[in-house]
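Protocol step 4 of 5: obtain the predicted structure for the target chain.
Materials: sequence only (see below). No template structures provided, no constraints applied. The aim of this step is simply to have a reference model before the mutagenesis design in step 5. Sequence pasted as it appears in the construct record:
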Amino acid sequence: MLDENEISLEQLYKLLHMSKRKAVWLLQNGIIPCRVRNHSTHKYAIRIEDVERYMERTKRERRDEIPTGIFNARPVKSKLTAPELCITVRGEEQERYIDLLGSKLKNLPDRLTINEVAVAVGYTATRINGLVDSGELYAVKLYGAYCIPKVQLIAYLATDDAFSIRGKSEWHRTAIQEFIKMQGDIFPMKECQRKIYYEIGERIRKARQEARISQEELAEYAEISGSYISDIEAGKRNFSVDVLIKISEALQVSTDWILRANTPGTYTVLNNDIDRILDGLTPDELNDIALILTDIKRSIKRAKCIVKKHTEQ
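Step 4 output (C-alpha cells):
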C-alpha cells in the first residue's frame, strides 16, 4: 500500500503530462526521488513533496537535466532562436518590455481563449495548451474551456521561460528584436557624452573587480540584465538614477566617485580651470555638457536624500 503522502508512477506521469518511459527515467536516475517497492504493481512510490519540488523548477532546468536525444529518435531540426534573443530582463527593463507587449496586443480583448492566444503570438494551440497545463501560463476554466487574461499572457512573455523558448514564432522574435532596438534608442548618446560614460563605466568595472563581484551578481542586485551591465561598463549605455544608486550600494562606493572619480568634499575646481575646459566649445557642445551636469547634479542630490532617509530610519 502507498502512504497517504505518496503517489504511483501512473499518477506521476499523468500529473506531469509526460510519457511513462520518461517518468521512469526520471525516477531511475534520481531526478525525482522515489521509494522502490518489491511489488508487481505500483513498484515506485513517490512522495508528493518531491513532485512539488520538481514542478517548482523552471522549464530550462528540467530540460537541462535530460541529455539531448534520449527521448527523440533523432535530433530535432527546428529553427533555433538566435542566442541574442534569449535575453533576461529585470526591473525597469522588464517594465519597458511589458509596455511594448501591451502596445502590440492592445487590440485583443482582456480575456482570451487558447486559440485566440495562439493566433495572436504565432504558436500552435497545442503549445499554448501545454503552457497552461504545466502552470507556466495562468488560465481559468470557464464552462469547460480555458480563459487566459491578457495581462497574464503579457506577464508570461516577460519571464525567463518565455525568453528561453527554442524555435520562437515570428511574432515573438519580432517583439524581442523591437525591444532590443528600443533599448538602444531610449537615451541615444551624443558624441561628447560617450567619453564621459566610458570613464564612468571604467570606474564601475574597477570597483566591481575590487569588490570581487561578477557582472551577473551586480546585474541581479541592480535588477537589470547582465548584458546591460556589460554595456554600462563598456560605456555603450547610460542608466537611470535608480540603477546608479543600486550599483553604488552593491559596490560600496559613493555615487559621487562613480560619476566624478572623487569622494565628497575633495572635489575642487577653480573658476579659471572651468573657463579653460570650456574654452573653444561650440554652443551645441556647451549645451550637451550642461545637460550632462544637470543629470549628474540630480543624481547626487537624490543619492544624498536616500542616504539621509536610511540614516534617519
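Step 4 remarks: The beta strands are 6-7, 35-36, 44-47, 111-112, 140-142, 145-149. The domain at 6-64 is CATH 1.10.1660 (Multidrug-efflux Transporter Regulator; Chain: A; Domain 2).
Proceed to step 5.
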